[in-house]
């Protein structure tokens, strides 16, 4: 039995931060952008609702950049229509990537908003049926209308007074009226946060009609040229290194080129920096790039060094695909993506993590199927089942759940170590969480005469993690060490809160103290009530170290102890304990 549960798998995960939200946004539009197929309509509706929720976590500019990335080919009319009703920047990027048939365009274009139809008129590769619908709806390229003299003011409406020219007047002294400019003729009032506009140039006496109008137009253009342009209307980076100190680092951008490999289009905010760059001459291996351009071959992993503005200067990797017209098959340039070059170690680590995530996705499918069938048998959904078989099915369902939990931990570690997952931010008291969990573990250790010797104090240790993330990190450390305790053994725990960070020190049990690398040991739990996971204590501690680093801290081994250090939440006034004791646990 074959079934596609990719959409359900994506929806099952929760986006804990902006980076995770962007990843899930890409996954959803990738799955929804395929050709419409039979499936659960409720699941698809949930996917669109999740896209709306993710839109509240991702800015419009970032969503437009994601939708405009190279490689998307939206073949689902429902998704194209949904994007067409979004923000104009997002709609323009999506309609540029839409790849529908003529019949689908005929059906969807009349249902698109008017502004979205205008975006389609800029495409030159639409089917004939789509162009016929656009023509029938009267959609044409946007252009400013010709000015109407009656709307320019009373002075403009007045015919120019006849002037008799003396015969001895030389031609070079005659003033030809300047061409009229489009736009508002009256100087608008400057807002309070902008630089006050300079006074208009006074109109000389005796100049009326067209000449006075021209002077007013020149004064308006001078005022407009002197205004400070905002980020939505940027200036060319001509030596203004500090013009935009708030600009974010640029990791990648999408571009298009002409037939000679010269960039003639890029996404919003980047075009003015990279326009006109010759990809072949900027490449490290120019001969290889020139040969690929001549042969109309794809560019894959081409190393390029860019010079210019601070945001684009440096080493890049180019991946691009040649474009051909659909009707004649004529080559008309490349479209692709620039991405920042990384070291070989980071690139290899990212590739390994990506392969691991793909493997886990493939493994989850059969395990989910086994768990589902086992639960059907155990719960007697189809019909009566003997108790013996129900017991076996319950064991299989439990084992499947245990395996899926291990897969989740593997996936979490891969994402944390490659920086593709951010922990959920919040305001958690790590000291209170540690005291609560130690109290929960003490009764479990009592039958083995094992214990925790704690010195945690009564102060607070606020950290910038949510309650769930902080509890998960503390429990991973405490439960892992508690599971490896031998009979009659004790673990000393001490917490010290400084001005900038909190240190949580735990002495190592005898089963871990002799290990050369504590983050790779395969020690299993001595008690069934406590488990370090299916991969052993070393993996759990490595995952705890990755979580600590993602929170801005560190987990290290110092001689016979593990020391977890986490930065305290700045700007939070530490409150005294209920007993009125000072906020420290230095002991």
TrEMBL record:
A GO molecular function held by the record: phosphorelay sensor kinase activity
Documented EC number(s): 2.7.13.3
Biased composition (Acidic residues): 164-175
CDD domains hit by this protein: HisKA
Keyword terms of this UniProt record: Kinase, Transferase
Domain Signal transduction histidine kinase dimerisation/phosphoacceptor: 351-419
Name of the protein described by the UniProt record: histidine kinase
